[in-house]
Amino acid sequence: MLEDALLVLRLQFAVSASVHFMFVALTLGLAPVILITQLRATLSRDPARMRAVRFWGGLYVVNYGMGILSGLVMELQLATNWGGLNHVFGNVFSAPLAVETLVAFFVESTFLALWIFGWERMNRWAHLATFLVVTATAYASAYWVLVANGFLKNPVGFEMRDGVAVLTDATALLTNPAATSAFAHISFGALLLGGLFLAAVSSYHLRRSYDPDRIFTRGLRVGIALAALALLPTFVSGGMQFPMIVESVPPTSGDTLSPGEIERLEEGHSSYAPVPLYLMMLCWLASALLVIAGLLMWLARRLEHAPRLQVALLAGPLLPLMASLFGWLSRELGRQPWVVVHHLPTAEGATNLSPGMALLSFTLFTGAFAALVSITYWLLLRYARLGPDHGPLAAPVEGSTAPPPRPSY
């Protein structure tokens, strides 16, 4: 019965972490594009480029809002379902998560609100600076989450006192290779997603000959260029993590459990981490073929007039999203049967729930995630399809309070 409950709790954690990161990845991928576009618009005082900032920024805001909500749901289930982890390693594991909460919910959200409501109310350089802070804190937030997650795979910088972990070396925790290598990988992977997202939305409008102020011509080119720049670093930084994910960690003298107990727990445990890793690589390969096709069309000066490529690009963002999903799955499978490797088995890290309560928790939290995902992607598709004059941050029509007419298509 306990094993049944544990399986449900593990599945719930995998679903919540993977789904939440889908929002995070798009946030990280879009933020630098919006920042650079606004910088160019600020320097040139070009209203066409600022119109593009409002359009892409509106999609960013929708995705960010749902990312915050999904993060709250994930942290709530982490607190309720993994009591053993919080009791033994809460002083170490929860510390970076607490910093991430301060960064994301207070600093990042505050400056994003200033950016949203600061149009025409702030100096253009001050307005640009607010989004610079938003971008920096978005990446800082992701880093702190990976510090916590990296500790589970490679626990460093602590010692056990009376059965409870105490942080003794913050530098070791912050420079943990399991965290830094993952941060590089997800950063480049997010840029790949951001580039393909720009290309997909731009392709949709270009296929319908709708390109006000050449927003979507530039969006397609920037998207392909960004994806091309991120393609190889994503692969290289991901390959650097293979040993950490697939290979077993040898016991050390600093482990809480004896080598015999570690061997007994790991005996007969087959790691399925390579399976999602191979699927992740297939998604990356498909992304690479799509990006290379885009580059070839660009060189042939047919990028904006390649209907078959544009149809294929509509599905482009799904590839890095699925790659991130498989990546997180392989990362979690590669750590089993441990919550904290060689220190806390998964069975001891979970809250003691009956199978019925575990199933209820899974149903409620997964239902909440399903609702958030459905609402977010409906809103993203709706605003992306309507174009720059109907987004959440669209500028009002000069001299009129009525919204501009919707595109005829």
TrEMBL record:
Transmembrane segments: 20-41, 53-73, 93-118, 125-146, 182-201, 222-242, 277-299, 311-329, 358-380
Keywords: Cell membrane, Electron transport, Heme, Iron, Membrane, Metal-binding, Transmembrane, Transmembrane helix, Transport
Keyword Membrane on entry: yes
Domain of life: Bacteria
Membrane topology: Multi-pass membrane protein
Entry keyword Cell membrane: yes
Cellular location(s): Cell membrane
Family (UniProt): Belongs to the cytochrome ubiquinol oxidase subunit 1 family.
The protein's name: Cytochrome ubiquinol oxidase subunit I
Organism: Lipingzhangella rawalii
